[in-house]
Design a protein that fits this description.
- The model has no long low-confidence stretch (mean pLDDT 84).
- This protein has two domains: 8-52; 57-271, MetI-like fold, CATH 1.10.3720.10.
- The protein has helices at residues 9-50, 59-71, 74-106, 108-121, 130-137, 141-165, 169-177, 182-219, 225-234, 238-271.
- Helix content is 83%, strand content 0%.
- It is flat.
- The two termini are 35 Å apart.
- By secondary structure, it is mainly alpha-helical.
- It is built from ten helices and no strands.
Length: 272
């Protein structure tokens, strides 16, 4: 095939679009990196010149401590323990919340029966359930996973039910007019339209999961980022406290970016 042959309009647009897309992605990445640089630069300036104190270490000191904790395996052990609990409890809570939310949004009688459950329980903070979780399940993994499920499930239920309620009635009527069965209406119309709401609910629930796991590990755990914070407080290891805080922030930021990409791609594919 002759490489010098003139390109069609579609090919030309493809070639022209690639550099533009790359430049846009590079710009976005540069802006994020610039944001992080400004954050840590501000931290350095404040810790060095405004509040020079051993209780507020500058970022380079914290980075040095993080390297030491990484090398001896302490940081990896604590991160993995917390992340494993978050992901397992979050996955179970989401898998339980989605069908319940779909049922509440799809069937009025189910909504009337289950609404008192969800509206009552969701106003009891997961942090307030820590004592009950320890009494029921002990200080092992089960109590932490139970708390993550508890803090996840209601957010997913509410967003899923809201997604079902937001479906345009004309879409459902059009599907039925074309001969679609109830199962087909649900699979090809209702569920795809609800996916963006489900993912948004999961994104919000993930933030709650980070808050809950730290509180749970502060009270009932031998390992984890929450326990790392608690030990830092007990022994005045301020550098370790900041290592745990920065690690939590970076983990949360990374997970949230993943969910934003999923929401953008899946929501776009279901709405176009």
């Amino acid at each position: 095939m002759n490489s010098n042959a003139p390109k069609t309009g579609a090919e030309a647009n493809s070639w022209l679009g690639r550099p533009k897309s790359l430049r846009r992605n590079a710009l976005h990445i540069g802006q994020f990196l610039g944001g992080f640089v400004s954050l840590f630069l501000t931290w350095h300036l404040v810790a060095t010149y405004v509040v020079p104190s051993v209780l507020f270490p500058p970022p380079l000191n914290v980075l040095g401590k993080a390297v030491l904790l990484f090398q001896d395996g302490t940081l990896i052990e604590n991160v993995w323990a917390s992340l494993k609990r978050i992901l397992l409890g979050f996955a179970l809570g989401s898998l339980l919340g989605m069908p319940i939310g779909l049922a509440i949004g799809s069937f009025a009688i189910v909504g009337r029966i289950l609404e008192p459950w969800t509206e009552f329980l969701r106003f009891i903070p997961s942090v307030a359930m820590i004592t009950i979780a320890v009494i029921w399940f002990g200080i092992g993994e089960e109590s932490k996973i139970f708390l993550i499920i508890y803090t996840t499930i209601f957010v997913v239920i509410l967003n899923t039910a809201a997604g079902v309620s937001a479906i345009a009635p004309n879409k459902l009527r059009a599907a039925r007019a074309l001969g679609a069965s109830s199962a087909q209406v649900f699979i090809f119309v209702a569920f795809p339209a609800t996916v963006p709401y489900i993912l948004t609910g999961m994104r919000l629930a993930m933030a709650n999961s980070f808050v809950t796991i730290v509180a749970a590990e502060l009270i009932a755990s031998d390992v984890g980022l929450g326990r790392m914070l608690w030990n830092g407080r007990l022994y005045m290891l301020v550098d370790e406290i900041f290592v745990a805080l920065v690690t939590l922030g970076l983990l949360g930021f990374s997970v949230d970016r993943i969910f934003r990409v999923l929401v953008k791609r899946l929501a776009g594919s279901y709405t176009t």
